Amino acid sequence: MYINFVVVLISYFCLSASLTFDSAVTVFPLDFADSKLSNVMGTSALKNMSKFCANLAFLFPEQPLLDRYKLAKDAGFKAVETGFPLGHTKEQVVEAKNAAGIQQILINIYTGDVTKGELGFAAVPGKEDEFRKSIDLTIDYAKALGARKIHIMAGRVDEGNITAAHDLAYENNLRYAVGLLEKENILGVIEPINKYSIPNYYMNCYDKALSVIKKINSPNLKLMLDIFHLQLIRGNISNTIKELIEYIGHVQIAQAPNRNEPNCPGEINYQYVLGQLQNAGYNDWIGLEYKPVSNTKDGLKWIGELGIV
Ligand SMILES: *[C@@H]1O[C@H](CO)[C@@H](O)[C@H](O)[C@H]1NC(C)=O
Ligand SMILES: *[C@@H]1O[C@H](CO)[C@@H](O)[C@H](O)[C@H]1NC(C)=O
Ligand SMILES: *[C@@H]1O[C@H](CO)[C@@H](O)[C@H](O)[C@H]1NC(C)=O
């Protein structure tokens, strides 16, 4: 029903969106909850749709990380998420965020040295000390930034051979992290990542993610559902959203298989999928973690083209 409704109104949305993005001052482009448009439409469906946050590791690659806070704000975003701000002090990041006047929703855990292939330590046996240091450091940044979500990355496994030792390290490290996160009222999220994007990454499977989340059974540990990864791991998007909805703590989107803007030619119809998320009751932030085809700001036109602002 929602989709039919959107289709009927699509020309209205396209007009509205082009006005929004072409004008020098963007008033309400990326927040459904208080958008004037949804008030005009008077539909509960649109009023309660989730909000988009800019992933600063992917968007605005033209500029250094700290400058991207302001670029995101100027493009109309109210919030951002980012990978761990490598190489910047907490004070520098907080200053950039505050100067831009934007909210930080999520940061990734400190991953270790990515140039050596390190992508977190949670599932790496023998690296428990590194894991503990990384979660401490990340909580410290998250608190300073006001971020209420941390993506706990698992790390790579030699030649992709996952053993019981990896599973055990993962569960124990997550339990340790959750103990800290519960005290700080921060949500930890774990994310299955497809093998084409990151070969040999430990957390590459929804059943495995769900099983450890259920085992640990804490409101402070949930799933990060990146629809791009979902499509490349197993497809079956609508059923998976319905199955996993109560465990979803954060959502990210990009077109598949090339990880560009959601409206690019590709395998996923985001107008439909975002409707499915909304119908399932997802009401939280959606991270835009895609590689802009060219200029990031021009690329944001997809939001209007999908008929959702
Ligand atoms: C990984 O598994 C393959 C196939 O079973 C095996 O040949 C290889 O030696 C294993 N590698 C490691 C590091 O255990
Ligand atoms: C699709 O997802 C549903 C819900 O998770 C599951 O029951 C079904 O088995 C899946 N289909 C396939 C082909 O994996
Ligand atoms: C939006 O949805 C959430 C949960 O689905 C609900 O708790 C909340 O009251 C809704 N807000 C509005 C404005 O309808």
List keywords for this structure.
alpha/beta, disordered N terminus, TIM Barrel, 8-stranded parallel barrel, binds 2-acetamido-2-deoxy-beta-D-glucopyranose, globular
Please tell me about this protein's structure.
This protein is α/β, with parallel strands linked by helices and 309 residues long. It has one domain (2-305): Divalent-metal-dependent TIM barrel enzymes (TIM Barrel). It is built from 13 helices and eight strands. An eight-stranded parallel beta barrel has the order 1-2-3-4-5-6-7-8, surrounded by five helices. β2, α5 and β3 (103-108) form a beta-alpha-beta unit. α4 (65-74) packs parallel to α5, α6 (128-145) runs parallel beside α7 (164-184) and α10 (237-244) runs parallel beside α11. The model is unreliable at 1-49 (pLDDT under 50). It binds 2-acetamido-2-deoxy-beta-D-glucopyranose (NAG) (3 copies).
Task: Describe how the helices and strands are arranged.
Elements: H1 2-22, H2 36-41, H3 44-47, E1 52-55, H4 65-74, E2 79-82, H5 90-100, E3 103-108, H6 128-145, E4 149-151, H7 164-184, E5 187-190, H8 206-216, E6 221-226, H9 227-233, H10 237-244, E7 248-253, H11 270-280, E8 286-288, H12 296-299, H13 302-305
Helix pairs in contact: 4-5, 5-6, 6-7, 10-11
CATH class wording? Alpha Beta
Number of strands: 8
Shape: globular
Bound molecules: 2-acetamido-2-deoxy-beta-D-glucopyranose
Distance between the termini: 18 Å
Report the CATH topology name.
TIM Barrel
The helix count comes to 13
Q: Indicate the low-confidence ranges by residue numbers.
A: 1-49
Describe the biggest sheet? 8 strands, parallel, barrel
User: Roughly what is the average pLDDT, rounded to an integer?
Assistant: 85
Give the strand order of the largest sheet, numbering strands 1, 2, ... along the chain.
1-2-3-4-5-6-7-8
**Percent of residues in beta strands:** 5-15%
CATH architecture: Alpha-Beta Barrel
N-to-C series of helices and strands: HHHEHEHEHEHEHEHHEHEHH
Give the full name of the CATH homologous superfamily: Divalent-metal-dependent TIM barrel enzymes
